Amino acid sequence: MGYLLDVVLILLLLIAVAVLVWGWDNYVRIVPLTSDKFGLFKNASKYENPDWVKKINERGGMTRTEWASFIDRHYNPPGRPPENSN
Fold it and tell me: Is the residue at 29 inside a domain?
């Protein structure tokens, strides 16, 4: 019984670590606006809320989730077929 409890606790610990790493990477870690990303951001940010643009500029980057939604809003408009559709 003690062995089974140890295995369950280790599995729960591994799952918790994986969830924490995923959450950190998607919602906390800031992806810096490097020169290539800054060009995309500069071109499309004129259509965004100025307060949000100011916040991103002050932080120097976006989280991965913010970046993905920003790209979807500006470069993958609704109704447009995917690039690789035949």
Answer: yes
CB of 56 within 8 A of CB of 62? yes
Q: Is the pTM of this model over 0.85?
A: no
Between CA 54 and CA 86 the distance in angstroms is: 40
The mean of the pLDDT values for the chain is 87
Q: Does a structural domain hold residue 81?
A: no
The answer to whether the CB of 36 falls within 8 A of the CB of 62 is no
Domain count, the chain: 1
Contacts 24+ apart (CB under 8 A), 76-80: none
CB 29 within 8 A of CB 63: yes
Domain with 71 in it: 2-75
